[in-house]
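Objective 1b. Sequence-to-structure analysis of Phenolic glucoside malonyltransferase 1.
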Amino acid sequence: MFSGGKEPQNPKSLKLSPSPEITPDVFRYTFKLTRENIQMLRERLIRESSSSFSSSKELRLSTFVIVFSYVFVCLIKARAGELNRPVGYVFSVDCRSFMNPPIPKYFGNCISGYHRMMLKAEMFMGQERFSVVARMISDSIEKWDENDAWKIQDFVAYSTLPPETQFIVASGSTRFGVYGLDFGWGRPDKVVIATIGQGNGISMADSRDGNGGVEVGFSLKKHEMDALIDLLHHGLKI
């Protein structure tokens, strides 16, 4: 991330901001959701949204919305702590269809990002918060348009967030087909996104089994990871 601005006392800098150090007490974990798990969560969202929302706008129930909403709520609850702390999320947006003249259609070309910041953790601590987040993310996707595609992202805003902010960043895609890649030495046995860092990043990929499932990667300190794993698996039993 670059820094600086137009102010004389804060000149522009092309130096990259330092990455946070990964401490020895940080662990990685891959959570696997089967096609059946995702369908069960989809049906739960349909039930909860029909009883919780008066909006006539249809809820987008894509695999991404379902999975990201589910893990977002679990991450907020696993952190616990101050309920008034700021939280937010960011995910990638495919902008290929907005380009004129058209651009090459290979997957991953022309990516932008959508972010929502300065929410409060307490919003996601109660019952049926899964459907609240799904509605929020669904609306974020629906309102994205060509004007947003041409906006320059305010990356400086990320660096000015309060240190206690829990800002969930989703990397990867459930449609990338990473386990189908073969560069001459066979398909991969395990795919890991190394840049998810510590705490606020998650990775998403299609399942290595090719059965319509999803793999979600996390990188957290052990006490928080233990709480997260319990929440992730318990939520599938409700």
